[in-house]
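User: Here's a protein and a ligand (zinc ion). What would the complex look like?
Assistant: Let me lay out the input and then the predicted complex.
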Amino acid sequence: MHRRLIVPSALAATLVLAIPASAANSSAGAPGIGDPYYPAAGNGGYDVSHYDLRLKYQPQTDLLEGTATLLATATQDLSRFNLDFGLEVSEVRVGGRKAKFTKEGDQELVVTPVAPLAKGSATSVVVRYAGKPSQLKIGGWTAWHRTPDGGVAAQEPDSAVWWFPSNDHPLDKATYDISVSVPDGSQAISNGVLVSQSSRLGWTRYNWRSNKPQASYLATLAVGRFDITTEKTADGLPILNAYSKDLGDTAGAARASIERTGEVAEWLTEVFGPYPFNALGGYVPNVTSGYALETQTRPFYSPRQFAAGANVSVVVHELAHQWYGDSVSVKGWKDIWVNEGFARYSQWLWSEKEGEGTAQELADWVYAQHPADDAFWTVAPGDPGPQNQFHLAVYDRGALALQALRNEIGDEDFFAILKGWPAEHAYGNAEVGDFVAYAERVSGKPLAGLFDTWLYEPSKPAAPAAAEARIARSEGAEPERPKSWKAIASTNTIHDHGHERGDEH
Ligand SMILES: [Zn+2]
């Protein structure tokens, strides 16, 4: 939710641009971007277009040293501005000149350049820093995973604060070059294409590039000892997967799932349209967590996702996010359904394709699992609140909403919408209301009532007529459990990220 600027007249706007910013007419950037769920997330007054992170990480001690160069444009006459960051900073330069800086709270770095920045002007911000991310606790909580052989940054809604300074909100996306030096024998995994790697004096540097807009929480870093596999898609895009050498008994199941990344992406391309990024893959570090995350181009998977055997469904979910969540991102965190409802529904579509239960059968099953007095129905997927942002209802009721839409408008329009939406908002941001309007436009039907019933009403919607007919046919018997249900339900832990934290951010 960008604050709208009020421009009194064209003449006034011209004058503002013609006069350099002065202390008199410039003001401090807001300490938050304006997201009601997380008031401190992101910042106001500027927009970042590119992050260049040059890092060095010592796995034995967890010491991370870095220089971050941000290319930014002031969106107001700016006397000072905030970055979201938690590690110890030694120097900040703005436009090449040393700037004053101070830390406010756990994660706000307040930067005052020697001279105010004029609205519309581009500048560089260089931040030198060092610290041990595992020692940074915010509200008693850390996003950083310390592993026996290194460390991992992969969390939602934020992890950047633990390893680089940023405008930490999906509204301000940017491209990334991430260069990481680690001791020989360790690897550094990040987003996008591995452009180059070189070794010198016992250290190996990995240079990664993510060349399409990327939200800060979708940037990832994993240092450890990995086995790496590489392939190419039919379209020639590089696939790079990384597996911790310490996965033990889950190693086979993890590989049997993630090595199907190219195949799953090929199928998703038929459903959602062209793959939006420059690379694919996934990685499984030796973390003790249970979740998975759609880190851009290279999802993070906890080994526990494969504890019971191979699970391609979780790969489907995280790859679906590359279109729904990564390319088209939320405007505010209240819009999480635009990510999770669709990623969950893609698991139902995969089941349908594999002959393990249609999306309708899965919808009937999910609907029957939750009686009317189940608290499940009190969570509104369309605006669940920060405490319920990753509640199961956002996923399962969110997918029920899509099945209801499909039944209402028919397959032709429904699949046109699934493919059209990622093109309509590619590399941008959108909110729930934008999707409702888009679906109405494509189908030519009024749909506000349907979405209100399935996304906002705090009660169990009446069974759709089609479901009533099916129930009547089976004489009221419980719907049969679809074959794919176990694999899909076992991915429910993918939303178990961050539930142990408070709402401090
Ligand atoms: Zn998800």
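Summary: Residues 294, 317, 321, 340, 343, 494 surround zinc ion (CB under 6 Å).
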